[in-house]
Amino acid sequence: MLSKIISEKNIEILRQLLNGAENIAIVTHISPDGDAVGSSLGLAHFLKGLGKQATVIVPNRFPAFFNWLSGAQDIIIYEEQNEAAQKAISEAQLIFCLDFNSLDRINGVASLVKSSEAKKVLIDHHVNPKEFCDVIISHPEISSTSELVFRAICRLGYFPDITKECAEAIYVGMMTDTGNFSYNSQQPEIYQIISELLFKGIDKDAIYSRVYNTYSVNRMRLMGYCLSRKMKIFPEVRAAIMVLTLEEQERFDYQVGDAEGFVNLPLSIEGIDISVLVREDAKKIKLSFRSQGTFPVNKMAEMFRGGGHLNAAGGESYQSMRKTLWKLENLIKNRADFESTVASSEVDE
Ligand code: 5GP
Ligand code: MN
């Protein structure tokens, strides 16, 4: 038996909301990752099994290595299918917001969600969710939203109805948000859930391969280039920063998701416990942060309009690359000051 993480009250409200809704929209965050896509498709499969109409809407495109997931082809990409997204959300009687804690994480989809009169349910694992939903199922202690979706389905009494396709989507989210169970993956119940998913018929080794062993030659060469030419090590503060410019991305025929996971690589170096990937985008600079241990990269990401988890976070900058790097390197070089400031502000809270 899994422990009852989600409150009985929230499960009861969820049950009633599901009873009263035929048409359901599921939205998730910008630059959807495995947990965003996995939790959304997992929930969509479950809802369709209940005879509901369920539509997944994402703000922008997700990496192609999730295309094999059942239902991925039906996902509406707001940036490319504006009208379809608008229609799906305006017709929905119930909206699920998955894997994000604030409306500014869904870009243009936010205004559609805001103006809808449908009831809204948040299922998420980021700290400090904003109050934009009627029901808030927020559990930062759980390592993926996909796991929360699995727990919610079970608590509603529908474990027997979980299909292989639903189980595959949930597994993808659990696997990717823990780096294939190498961080945030200490909770024993994670493995109880994986066991249940295996009994549903998923092939976990094949899923690993489909998600992680899908590099194009260009992507592999870009990774090699980043590691050999672009990785700057700050030994005194046990940190690494990699910077990827637009010109470099063009040189390697960059496709969505091609730099996914690169930020984790420097953490394999003995003694390095903070890693940052700075990637120039058409209109902004995207920063990805990772740490091992207790260094709170979400607090550092907050200095760049972002946030996230203790060990994985992201932010963005609209300043020049030079100014962005100057700010970042200063923060990193003074990590001790940063850590003590964060620690003392937490005491104050
Ligand atoms: P990634 O580095 O893989 O893009 O993001 C890691 C995690 O950081 C995500 O799961 C998400 O929780 C968070 N994150 C990434 N980018 C942003 C951002 O721009 N704003 C906020 N608030 N969180 C972000
Ligand atoms: Mn997540």
Can you walk me through this structure?
- This protein has two domains: 8-212, inorganic pyrophosphatase (n-terminal core) (Alpha-Beta Complex); 217-348, Roll (Diaminopimelate Epimerase, Chain A, domain 1), CATH 3.10.310.30.
- The chain has a six-stranded parallel sheet, with helices on both faces. Strands 7-8-9-10-12-11 form a six-stranded mixed sheet.
- It contains 13 helices and twelve strands.
- A hairpin with a 3-residue loop joins strand 11 and strand 12 (312-317).
- Helix 2 runs parallel beside helix 5 and helix 6 (164-176) crosses helix 8 (204-212).
- With 349 residues, it is of the alpha/beta class.
- The protein starts with 7 loop residues before the first helix and ends with a helix.
- The model has no long low-confidence stretch (mean pLDDT 97).
- Residues 33, 105, 126, 263, 288, 306-309, 312-316 line the site of guanosine-5'-monophosphate.
- Guanosine-5'-monophosphate binds at residues 33, 105, 126, 263, 288, 306-309, 312-316.
Short recap of the structure:
The protein is an alpha/beta fold and 349 residues long.
Point out poorly predicted stretches. Answer: none
CATH architecture of the largest domain: Alpha-Beta Complex
What integer value in Å does the Rg equal? 20 Å
Class based on secondary structure composition and strand pairing: alpha/beta
Overall pLDDT metric: 97
Q: Tell me the count of domains.
A: 2
Percent helix among the residues?
40-55%
User: Which hetero ligands occur in this complex?
Assistant: guanosine-5'-monophosphate, manganese (II) ion
- State the shape: globular
Encode the helix/strand succession as letters.
HEHEEHEHEEHHHHHEEHEEHEEHH
The CATH class of the largest domain turns out to be Alpha Beta
Question: Order of strands across the biggest sheet?
Answer: 3-2-1-4-5-6
First-to-last CA distance: 36 Å
Biggest β-sheet description: 6 strands, parallel
Which percent band covers the strand fraction? 15-25%
